[in-house]
Amino acid sequence: MKITDVEVMILSLPEIVERTDGSQDTAVVRVTTDEGIVGIGEVDSSPWIVKAIIEAGKSHTICRGLREIVLGEDPFQVSRIWEKMYQGSIYYGRRGAAIQAMSGIDLALWDIMGKAAGVPVWRLLGARWRKEVRAYASSLFGDTLEDTGRMAREYVDRGFTAVKFGWEPLGKNAEYDVALVREIRRAVGSGVDVMIDAGLVWDAKTAIGMAKRFSEYNIAWLEEPLHPDDIDGYARLSSATSVRIAAGEEESSRQSYIDLMDRGNIDVVQVDVTRCGGLTEAMRIAGLAHDRHRPVVNHSFKSGINIAASLHFIAAVPNAFIFEYCVSQSPLRHDLTLQKFEVIDGMVKVPEEPGLGVDLNEKTVATYRVA
Ligand code: MG
Predict the structure, then answer these.
(1) Which of 92, 147, 184, 283 is the most buried (most CB within 10 A)?
(2) Burial class (CB in 10 A: 0-12, 13-18, 19+), 171
(3) Is residue 255 domain-shared with residue 226, that is, in the same domain?
(4) What would the pLDDT profile of 247-299 be if each residue is shown by its tens digit?
(5) If you measure from the C-alpha of residue 223 to the centroid of ligand 1, how many angstroms do you get, rounded to a whole number?
(6) Position 186 in a domain
(7) Which domain does 106 fall in, by range?
(8) Would the pTM count as exceeding 0.90?
(9) What's the gap in Å between 31 CA and the centre of ligand 1?
(10) How far apart are CA 61 and CA 270, in angstroms?
């Protein structure tokens, strides 16, 4: 089997609001083969930059567009293709957008392999540690304290046994930040896990203080309180608090994760399969975390494609325990795939269909496609 084409589709809501909300647009990657099997992937990045990186022509040996690198390759040689993309983009890549763009192609190749073999991707990854996984409702904070509390209660009423709130407005007013956490805990009661995603807003000393204040409300982890480059800050924070520290969603390639684990000493390793280099690299990162006795979790704030790929990933690694389930109202989150991945009694099922187990809803594609 040979790859005959790679296409990037950009989908966007008509209006992008000023908020750290990744569900407003997306890049969908479609890889075609000479046997008629088509694989689908997704990238969480700037879709416009991803499209440029994939569609770029060749400048020289180590400065090439990804499409041009993979054309004619056999999808079953997925780790060889990964290495070819990595080597062919050294000049502008190695981290960040190039690795994120590689993720989309890598996911589509796993989808193709699964479809060709007639098995779900978790089988190709070599294990299914769980048929379903406990999901946590992942949300941005509401506009007011009351809104946030009401939303938290709604998620619990829908069956979730864990909730996470994050980003704006944290970091502006410490008293309000503590009030938000208090309100969420009050709304959900004592039997529900609460996680807080700070969204890169503090320095290490401030984060140490906030972790102490939040710990009064028994939070299950504090996520990304520091700038992703502040690895020493993560090390200081981690040694100063008993609250588990989660990070990793900004990272791409395993080298960055080794830094976060070995120098930053984080506790919960967040892996986004649409950012870190795809399932091929995600499995390596999970292995590195497992060797260090750290759990991995998914990061997923895009469409059903990311959800499906993350479910295969979380199913296939021993050191996973909970699933980020984005509850954004965006139609790109809910209607881009025909499959809905419903949460029942707080659990979400791992797909059983061949490949990633997703089909694009062509109506949604037609409505929101801008390039
Ligand atoms: Mg986060």
Answers:
(1) 184
(2) middle
(3) yes
(4) 999 999 999 999 999 999 999 999 999 999 999 999 999 999 999 999 999 99
(5) 6
(6) yes
(7) 3-119
(8) yes
(9) 29
(10) 33
Helix (H) or strand (E) run with residue 49 in it: helix 47-55
The model's pLDDT over 23-55, given as tens digits with 9 standing for 90+, comes to: 999 999 999 999 999 999 999 999 999 999 999
Ligand 1 centroid to residue 266 C-alpha, Å: 14
pLDDT in tens, 87-138: 999 999 999 999 999 999 999 999 999 999 999 999 999 999 999 999 999 9
pLDDT of residue 19: 87
- pLDDT tens for 179-238 read 999 999 999 999 999 999 999 999 999 999 999 999 999 999 999 999 999 999 999 999
Closest CA to 167 of 202, 208, 201: 201
User: Into how many domains does the chain fold?
Assistant: 2
Q: Are residues 94 and 230 in the same domain?
A: no
**CA of residue 113 to ligand 1 center, whole Å:** 30
Q: What's the Cα-to-Cα distance from 350 to each of 49, 311, 362, rounded to whole Å?
A: 31, 5, 23
Q: 197 C-alpha vs ligand 1 centroid, how far in Å? A: 5
Q: Work out whether the CA dihedral 30, 32, 36, 41 comes out positive or negative.
A: negative
267 CA from centroid of ligand 1 (Å): 14
The arithmetic mean of pLDDT across residues 130-153, rounded, is 97
pLDDT for 85 equals 98
Q: In angstroms, rounded to a whole number, what is the distance separating the alpha carbons of residues 184 and 163?
A: 9
CATH number at 75 reads: 3.30.390.10
Cα–ligand 1 centroid distance for 219 (angstroms):
15
Which of 119, 150, 165 is where one domain is finished? Answer: 119
Taking the centre of ligand 1 as the mean of its atom positions, its distance from the CA of residue 48, in whole angstroms, is 22
Measured in Å, residue 285 CA sits from the centre of ligand 1 at 18
- Please tell me the distance between residue 270's alpha carbon and the centre of ligand 1 in angstroms: 8
The owner of tokens 């993720």 is 103
Do residue 55 and residue 165 come from a single domain?
no
The residue among 119, 144, 176 that closes a domain is: 119
